[in-house]
Amino acid sequence: MAQHGGGEEIPPGKPMSAKEHIIEKGASMMQSLKPIEQMNQHVCTFAIYSHDMTRQIETHHYVSRINEDVLQCAVYDSDESNARLIGVEYIVSDKLFETLPLEEQKLWHSHAYEIKSGLWVNPRVPEMILTPELKSLSKTYGKFWCTWQTDRGDKLPMGPPSLMVSPQGVNMGMVKPELILNRDHKYNISSEALKTSRVELPEPEWLNPQADYWKQHGKGFAVDIAPAEMKKITAFP
Amino acid sequence: MASSDSVAGAMPPGDGSVPPGKSMTVGQTIIDSTAHIVQSLNPIKNMKKHVCTFAIYSHDMRRQIQVHHYASRLSQDFLQCTVYDSDESDARLIGVEYIISQRVFDTLQPEEQKLWHSHGYEVTRGLWVNPGVPEMIQKPELKNIAQTYGKFWCTWQVDRGDQLPMGAPALMVSPQGVNQGMVKEDMIRARDEKYKISCEELAKSREGIVVPETTNPFSDYWMTTQKGFAVDVLPTEMKTTTALP
User: pTM (2 decimals)?
Assistant: First the structure.
């Protein structure tokens, strides 16, 4: 059970005992875990809270490609085995994005900037192998719900999910240099060098103005939960 | 766009596949395989348990779904799960559930506790199962889970036909032994048939499992208040940093 800043455990709880580990391992050998086996790509990038863009986080996406146009990702706050599951991101092609209703498009963000600027990386995968994938990903849009705000020290997932947005080349979309340096140091890479090598990557011809809503409108999105009268079924006898 | 909208906005056109989209090219499969070999994927390897159970939409309890949790235990008091709509390789990732012990649940504020649900009923009634794992091996874990609380956000409402994830996340609640908490018989039967199990037999074998003694007034909030939770996402003024030069 790793300690995270200040000696507090996040989440709380004693580590599993050796016996518990053995039982767990035994049970896992009896099960098929097909959906999990589809998550075969690790992406490290950055994301920003839509309702408070002063808060930026390093994220670790474990990506599963459903088809040529859709990917789904379990998002963690590190690449360690005790990483906290902090949310879910869906990624769709520009073609599919255009079919979404306008109100829905506002909840999505573009990826072109973070890929071209070398923020989005697949640790340890040679850039050359990645290039075709990066070409198609740079034209995609993502929708990312953060369900556990570990960056503000929450020991447990609290409150409603937060909508996240992607790094962009302006204002509050610019990722803090120390965050980038820290990440680059960990993986022994240089985002600057990647940016240079990705210069040839084509820019999307057009970015839908509904996406990255904050850029045009200066507004983020806050998620609200409110008690509601439940829909009832027909009365019981 | 609220999670509680009864129908999502207009659906993307296409061949009706969910989600829409062409199958992968050979090139993409090669990339995926390569990445798989050179990357460590540690957090994923920690997801060692498959659980099949049922969940209900908090804002509309007529809507019940079969769910597949892939759980990762971070401590004796905490599990985190990616939730899917099936156990197949083309399963859709429909949300996230966190599971905590009674001890940890008691440390939460009442306002937070309202978003959580108890697991005692679904475990003792044989709704919660670990497919493929003999009951005897599951027992210690089941005893643990029966005393836990969960918080489950559904981010893709596949059951209402959404071809892509639409709107705000929905808060889910767990099956309970009363009213709208009762899982529909045909759903249970379909699941049991798939895994060649019997919910009733499991319930019998689990009779000895202890559930929390006192009912917390805030978890399973709908049971005491007849109110669910609707989630909405609204534009808001952003916090800004100090003025840029």
Answer: 0.92
